[in-house]
Amino acid sequence: MLSRALCGTGRQLAPALGYLGSRQKHSLPDLPYDYGALEPHINAQIMQLHHSKHHAAYVNNLNDTEEKYKEALAKEMEFHHVGQSGPELLISSDLPTLASQSAGISGDVTAQIALQPALKFNGGGHINHSIFWTNLSPDGGGEPKGELLEAIKRDFGSFDKFKEKLTAASVGVQGSGWGWLGFNKERGHLQIAACPNQDPLQGTTGLIPLLGIDVWEHAYYLQYKNVRPDYLKAIWNVINWENVTERYMACKK
């Protein structure tokens, strides 16, 4: 019975392992503008370090972590293959081998669990920054138009009140994290949220990300020192409302 259970689990693992094995590695996306394009609001040095060092590190670490996860899954599957052929009646001579195999299975599941924080942190960092770069533009600023502006007025009272609330949520992040405008698909409403560290908005709250503001110090310290509110005041001048609107219209479909 134990060998039959092992075989069944192995069959369940096969599609997941095949999917991981066929995946292409993540890559650092190009910016849609030059490093100095957002000046004077965000200087070129910050943008270069933020993109080519910090975001690149999340991408590299995510690829490394996924490779380790694939290896742990493959080892677990090797143990599950034991007992696929031959009689399924368990005899006493099988017990030491199965005990050893069970310990190996436990160890590899433990390895997979141990990798979850790194997947969340680096995967979130890659997701968040990939959105962030497109949320900014040298031609940004001002207010959105059309349906997005109407939704903001409906859900927050006015555009100015929305700015105040998102700024307050971003200022209030303790340590490092993100301020977000998200879309609650179940309610059909816009919603403001703050996430710690690199927690991805949709993966941790269910909200679909529309606009993210990075409040890690590496996003502003070289220019604004530790005065986060000054950075947040400046970033509204480069918000790409066309991109935010596109995201909003896409998630409404």
TrEMBL record:
GO molecular function: manganese ion binding; superoxide dismutase activity
A GO CC term assigned to this protein in UniProt: mitochondrial matrix
Enzyme Commission number(s): 1.15.1.1
Binding-site list for Mn(2+): H50, H129, D214, H218
Protein localization: Mitochondrion matrix
Catalytically driven reaction(s): 2 superoxide + 2 H(+) = H2O2 + O2
Quaternary data: Homotetramer.
Lineage: Eukaryota, Metazoa, Chordata, Craniata, Vertebrata
Cofactor(s) this protein requires: Mn(2+)
SUPFAM superfamilies according to UniProt: Fe,Mn superoxide dismutase (SOD), C-terminal domain, Fe,Mn superoxide dismutase (SOD), N-terminal domain
Keywords, sorted A to Z: Manganese, Metal-binding, Nitration, Oxidoreductase
Protein name: Superoxide dismutase
